[in-house]
Amino acid sequence: MNTETFNRRSQLLHWGLALFGIAAWLTGENADDGFNSNGFLLHLYLGLAVLVFILTRFGTGLLTKGKLSFKGWTYFNRAQWRLAAQDIGQLIRFKLPQREIHQGLAGIVQFSGLLLFLWMAISGTAIFLLQNSTGSALFEAIEEGHEVGEALIPLFLILHVGAVIVHTLSGDHVWKSMVRKDSN
């Protein structure tokens, strides 16, 4: 299979989200030491880096054309969910679905990951900004929502990285699209 290569800007966005997002997630437990602790500050700054990358990614998706555009890539339509159901049926029969970029199950998993990173960055920033309101209903709701997101990150990583591994084992080295230099 011929895996398309993303340009350097796209690769930077992907790796920035991946590295800062995973680092923020891994340091999440350190944030429980209090707002003035080094662990909280490390988690906060990593989370703010994720916020910059995810806002840039959403801006790129909304304002550009091409591989990173959100045009036609959403899970808010029936066609995408129908394709995803077909993909699951193929996977159950041990067949790897072949779709256009961001379509079907892959598109749903990837877009869900972007929404999850967006939620985590925004809710984490809100927790920091509302730190003087601890105990308020709004603060508690945002904090609980942030913890739900924290629990969903491993599921997303298993699905996303697992799909890359399955594609690689089938001979489709999709991971190369995020490390090779674009020929364009």
TrEMBL record:
Boundaries of every Cytochrome b561 bacterial/Ni-hydrogenase domain copy: 7-180
Main location: membrane
Residues making up the signal peptide according to the UniProt record: none
Localization, UniProt: Cell membrane
PANTHER family xrefs: BLL0597 PROTEIN, NI/FE-HYDROGENASE 1 B-TYPE CYTOCHROME SUBUNIT
Keywords: Cell membrane, Membrane, Transmembrane, Transmembrane helix
Membrane-topology descriptor: Multi-pass membrane protein
Record InterPro entries: Cyt_b561_bac/Ni-Hgenase (IPR011577), Di-haem_cyt_TM (IPR016174), Hydrogenase_cytochrome (IPR051542)
Pfam families named in the record: Ni_hydr_CYTB (PF01292)
Ranges that cross the membrane: 12-28, 40-63, 105-131, 151-171
Organism per entry: Kangiella aquimarina
Protein name as it appears in the record: Cytochrome b/b6 domain-containing protein
